[in-house]
Amino acid sequence: MLPRAAALLPGASPGPGRRPPPPPAGLQEPQPPRGLAMASAGAADSVRAEAAGPQAEAAEEPEGGSRRWGAQHAGARELAELYSPGKRLQEWISVILCFALICFNFYNLLFYLRLEHMPSVIVGIFAGVITADFLSGLFHWGADTWGSVELPIVGKAFIRPFREHHIDPTAITRHDFIETNGDNCFMTLVPLANMAYKFVSFSPEALYETCPWECYVFALIIFITMTNQIHKWSHTYFGLPRWVIFLQDWHIILPRKHHRIHHVSPHETYFCITTGWLNYPLEKIRFWRCLENVIQAVTGEKPRADDMKWAQKIK
Asked: How far apart are CA 169 and CA 297, in angstroms?
């Protein structure tokens, strides 16, 4: 999929204050539909702005003095205003409960872990990371591709951030820890509570036997919990700790350049955002495209219709 991202380069701006010479008469290229052109231009602008930092953002200002893409986009402003105090409270509660249960379960796992478990535990941790990457892609694809912000409960609570993120990709870098990780912490509460229940109700013998399996589940939960934080780091180009950059450079977590491929409009590929390991193989077998074709054939719904609606808002 790298050629898809590379295709942006011919359309790149020649620099602030300079314009390319007009093409000779009769050689003008046909213009794409206005909405699609705006969405593609916006994605390209956001990718270049992320890569170069604040200086590039200033250089991308159009003559009118207000950017069409980013935090000043009409759709981005409207979506950001839908973040409610009730949603904030839910995120706080989720984060507190999640990390309390993580600490409790981690202590108990260490208590029952034995040396003979290590080969199974290593395999289980690796399998947990792979599973988390796939689930991150599945959830990301579902929220990006289907549904609407107008849906009851889930629309504003869970779909809204995905719509905002495509219009203003750097908004996530301005979110604090609670807003960034609240939803993922909420999703892991049930499996964490189930694991804690096992530790207080099962016999020591049973816990000893199931320890490798619980290590797999725990690794899966940890990486799901941290997925949005990893996603935020993939959009952060300044001030990252060296250990985060090291993990990105070695593709242990989602690298920044790798994730840019997803942010080329219409955002139809590279959905896995935990490690990104599965993006290339899933794209090669056209996994997401096949799912979309099946769902569209059964329901008649068009993929990413709501996403494009928000991208085309101008006021």
From this structure: 31
pLDDT, tens digit only, all 315 positions of the chain: 444 444 444 444 444 444 444 444 444 444 444 333 434 444 444 444 444 444 333 333 333 333 445 656 655 566 666 678 888 999 999 999 999 999 999 999 999 988 899 999 999 999 999 999 999 999 999 999 998 888 888 887 788 888 888 888 888 998 999 999 999 999 999 999 999 999 999 999 999 999 999 999 999 999 999 999 999 999 998 999 999 999 999 999 999 999 999 998 788 999 999 999 999 999 999 999 999 999 999 999 999 888 777 776 655
Query: How many whole angstroms separate alpha carbon 82 and alpha carbon 164?
Result: 10
pTM above 0.90, yes or no: no
Q: In angstroms, what CA-CA distances link 304 with 268, 272, 310?
A: 8, 17, 10
Enclosing H/E stretch for 44:
helix 34-52
Distance CA 231, CA 167 (A): 16
Q: H/E/C letters for each residue in 154-187?
A: HHHHHHHHHHHHHHCHHHHHHCCHHHHHHHHHHH
**CA-to-CA separations, 191 to 11, 196, 218, in angstroms, rounded:** 47, 9, 9
110 burial (CB, 10 Å; 0-12 / 13-18 / 19+) is exposed
**CA quadruple 246, 247, 250, 255: dihedral, nearest 10:** -110
Q: Are 288 and 271 in contact (CB under 8 A)?
A: yes
SS (H, E, C) 217-275: HHHHHHHHHHHHHHHHHHCCCCCCCHHHHHHHHCCCCCCHHHHHHHHCCCCCCCCCCCC
Show the tokens assigned to 54. 């604040």
Tokens 């052109």 appear where?
37
Report d(CA 139, CA 164) in Å as an integer: 16
